[in-house]
Amino acid sequence: MTDPASRPGDRLEEEPADVFPAVRQMAGLVLSRETVDSALRLVTTLAEVTVAGTIGAGVTLVDDHGKRSRASSNQAVEEADGLQYELDEGPCLTAWRSRQLVRIDDTTTDTRWPAWSTAVTAVGVRSVLSAALVAGDEAIGAIKVYSDRPDNYDAHAERVMSLFAQQAAILLANTQSLQQARRLSRQLTDALGSRDAISQATGVLMTRGAGDRHAAFTLLADIAARSGQTIEKVARELLNAVATRDADRSQA
Fold it and tell me: Do 16 and 156 touch, CB atoms closer than 8 A?
């Protein structure tokens, strides 16, 4: 088994040329700023067509809380992957946990994951190649390809898969970071909107006799507690009522 290159791109001239088109497409997706789901679909499709003899490919991402996001190119891969998660064993999970490339030459004779191998043989999977997706110092998941023929994957396939996994990890890590940044931006925007609504509502209450902003905020909090609503919702209802009243007056 060959070791992956220490840095993606350093050894492109030495690596198999059949991985180049896939690398270019993955780089293009980074530039297009797509979502994690789009990236997962692209990576599984490219893996299936890049590694010779493959009938299907799959990718699993694991976040900081252990939540798994996965994609598969067909039903056989989905079943094979589902068995790994159900049994908590198999080459994909081992590749992710060990950060090593894992190869199965024949599921009917491999004894490392007996329950999974027995179950997956019935699905039509005979050989497997799986590599960890490592970004920086973090294993973010694993990618795997399946074949219906024994001994389909060799040292050349390992080199292709190693380079492919390196580039896929860069894509998926970057896309995850972008999606997290967008989520944070939405949360901050919502928070600022809430703050503005509460600030405007306290201003309204001050015009109605609340001594200062602290007193006005306390009044909002008391109303929220009695009604079982959030302070933000109480503030927005107050502002909506004021807007409706003003609109009615303007039409009178």
Answer: yes
Query: In whole angstroms, what is the distance from residue 128 CA to residue 110 CA?
Result: 11
Phi, psi at 57, each rounded to 5°: -140, 160
Quote the pTM value: 0.60
Here the tokens at position 213 are 């902003």
Q: Helix (H, G, I), strand (E, B), or coil: what is residue 10?
A: coil
pLDDT tens digits along 63-103: 665 656 688 999 999 999 999 989 999 999 999 999 999 99
Phi, psi of 197 (to 5 degrees): -65, -45
Sorted by sequence, the CB contacts under 8 Å of residue 109 that are 6+ apart come out as none
CB 139 within 8 A of CB 99: yes
DSSP state letter for 33: T
Task: Please say whether the dihedral angle defined by the alpha carbons of residues 74, 34, 132 and 19, taken in this order, is positive or negative.
Answer: positive
Helices marked H in 99-148 — which ranges?
114-123
Distance CA 207, CA 9 (A): 65
